[in-house]
Amino acid sequence: MVASQLTYEPLGGELHRHGSTTHRHPHSGPHEHAGRSGNADHGHGHTHGLVDPSIKRSRQGLEAVGLSLLVLGLTAVAQTVLFVASGSVALLADLIHNFGDAATAIPLAIAFALRSATAERWAGLAVVFAIFASACVAGYEAIDRLIDPREVDHLGALAAAGVIGFGGNWIAALIRSRAGRRLDSPALVADGAHARADAYVSLAVIASAAAVAIGLERADPVIGLAITAVILKITWDSWRTVRGGAHHH
């Protein structure tokens, strides 16, 4: 009882002595002392751990971007080897596209390194633009082939490159999408959708090779148009993801 009577002093409860691990504050104000744990307390109710959450998020974001970039880099290198062996123009288009897509990792990596929500939002918009560019390239190629059909050769190399492209992009999509959801990063989620769009482009390469192999040359551009429609849908979904993220960041 004596202790409780000592608590209310004119100095607003400043009677307590720091460094003692035995006493408690009688008032339920917003600050607590972490005397027992020895953690530095900021006097406003929360104690930071060893790593600041934004630094931790930044590091995890950079890891996801770096890992997906490595996967896509290896994919593009493998496709380059096949292109040199086959000389396929269709494969060259997919190859240039994959190298270009790897470049979207750069603004995202910078955003995570800066730990800037604004930079991340701009990176997200850059990714959406890249997906739209993918759709335009795929659409242009498909229409061009409808108007001016060409012989497609080196079917085995083309199909193999498509399989590699699909696998690499699908793995990159999983890495980015999971990390994006975990870190609440609309830009990273959009980049996951971007890699998924590219996986579908690679799938079109496989389908085209198969169609031509069984004598359906015209199927090649038709498949291309169907894939273009899929990528345009992904562009729209990603735009909404990035715009939605702008409101709660």
CATH class of the largest domain: Mainly Alpha
Number of helices: 8
Global shape: elongated
Biggest sheet architecture: none
How much is the radius of gyration in Å?
27 Å
The level of helicity is: over 70%
Number of domains: 2
The multimeric state of the shown protein is single chain
User: Structural class of the secondary elements?
Assistant: mainly alpha
Roughly what fraction of the amino acids lie in strands? Answer: under 5%
CATH topology name of the largest domain, in short, is Alpha-lytic protease prodomain-like
Summed up, what is this model?
With 249 residues, the protein is mainly α. The protein has 8 helices and no strands.
Q: What features would you describe in this structure?
A:
By secondary structure, the protein is an all-alpha fold. The chain has two domains: 1-50, no CATH class; 53-248, Cation efflux protein transmembrane domain (Alpha-lytic protease prodomain-like), CATH 1.20.1510.10. It is 72% helix and 0% strand. It has helices at 2-5, 53-86, 89-102, 105-114, 117-147, 155-182, 186-213, 219-248. The longest helix has 34 residues, at 53-86. The chain is elongated and about 65 Å long. The two termini are 50 Å apart. Mean pLDDT is 78; it is low at 1-18, 20-25 and 27-48.
